[in-house]
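Reopening closed ticket. The problem is back. First fold of the pair:
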Amino acid sequence: MVVVRLVNVTKIFKTGVVGVKDINLTVNHKEFMALLGPSGSGKSTTLYLIAGIYKPSSGKIFFDDRDVTNLPPKDRNIGLVFQNWALYPHMRVYDNIAFPLRIKKLPENEIRKKVLETAKMLRIDKFLNRYPWQLSGGQQQRVAIARALVKEPDVLLLDEPLSNLDAQLRISVRAELKRLQKRLGITTIYVTHDQAEALAMADRIAVINNGRIIQIGTPEQVYSKPATIFVGGFLGNPPMNFVEAEITEEKQGLYMLLSGQKLTVPKHYEPLVRKAGLRKVVVGFRPEDTAVIPECRETGECIKGRVYAVEPMGREYIVVVDLGGDLVKAIVPRSLVLIEDQEVCVCPSLEKLVLFDPKTEKSLETLYAEKT
């Protein structure tokens, strides 16, 4: 188990396409790090650079203090699980798991011991004599993980290993995988485009877009305090709402005008807005942190609008409200009966608002941190 460090790593392919640019990332000892981003963002490229499948165009990669930048994959002691599992169809489960150990030319009795131990840990010891095509998707996925773990890697690399499973199985397997990682204490890097997987499994998340790391933090940090509009919009189901507002100053303090109605600028944001000299901000708020009040008369810290649509989601409703051209979503209980075109008030929690600079699309906290 090691600390993985990427220092100013850039990968430019022969076609001229930039895979990743100036990546700086540290994955701590025994940590579960998720690389999260949309398709083509550079997350798998980053994983393959760590694995040694790709060589960086510039920058360095370290396992602890050892420079592995130019080492081939076989000399890095990694376990790698691909999206399609890449099992050998002509080999039984036992031989699939044993394959990396036979490459190392270990004694057969030692191979057998390690295979049986790993298979039992992953609860596939009853399937060792079967072929991959005789297994379910979840069982095949466990075989692929067993093959990666059997050689006792220093780093476990997982490239969207659950994406080929159905939704129900994916939820149960991700819990097993997280528990297994904690039990073994292996430094793990997990690539996914599924924000629910990253939030549920990772100790920290590195959000990647256009080949660059946008934000690194705990699941709570990247969800509640997104560094950019992209991060706020990528995480969450439904994602964060964004509404542009004008800043106005009165004797009582700073206010934001949304659809011609006033919301107070939260106290901790006042100095940031003043220092940035902003006349406009983008206000971000989560649907679950937003109340909807029907037939409200006094708006207070609320904005009047009309119900655009109501989306039943089983235990709750998602209400889409038109705020003078801006559509925002709120999660409300089923007991709240609303109909289309009904006048309502949308009341976001002021404590949980995130304010962004419209030009850079960065949060004001991020902007201030960069300037100091």
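Second fold of the pair, where the issue appears:
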Amino acid sequence: MANKNENENKPEFLFGKRNYIIMAIGIAFIAVGFILMAGGGSDNPDVFNEEMYNFQRIRLAPTLVLIGLGIQIYAILTGHKK
């Protein structure tokens, strides 16, 4: 009888282990995207720096952030096995 009551009171997570792993991968994609977006400014406000508009900051970084958000949505919507 004691084992039955212990199992009933055990908290159950909303997502499974697989979901959390996929979420961690999505967070990593988002973090890398934001890190790649950083920088490109100029120390002197009178000088324009073309590095601000390179491929990494304009195309690659936002794409990684959007992929990361897509991975997060997939991780949330995917059901976990009990």
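Update: turned out to be a display glitch only; the data is intact. The chain is about 65% helix and 0% strand. The mean pLDDT is 86. Please close again.
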